[in-house]
Amino acid sequence: MFVRFSTSFLLSVVVYSVYCLDTTELSEPPGEHDSQTSCKIKDEMKGGIKQLELEEAQEKIRLLEDRLEELASRIPSHQAYPQIKFRTFKDRKRILITGGAGFVGSHLVDKLMLDGHEVIVVDNYFTGRRRNVEQWLGHENFELLHHDIVAPLYLEVDEIYHLASPASPPHYMYNPVKTIKTNTVGTVNMLGLAKRVKARILIGSTSEVYGDPEVHPQPESYWGHVNPIGPRACYDEGKRVAETLAYAYEKQSNVSVRVARIFNTYGPRMHTNDGRVVSNFIIQALQGDPLTIYGNGEQTRSFQYVSDLVNGLVALMEGDYSQPINIGNPDERSILTFANSIKEMVGGDSSIEHLPPVEDDPQRRRPLIDLAKKVLNWEPTIPLEKGLEKTVEYFRRELGRKKHSERNLGDIEFNP
Ligand code: NAD
Ligand code: UDP
Ligand code: UDP
Question: What is the CA radius of gyration of the chain?
Answer without folding.
Answer: 30
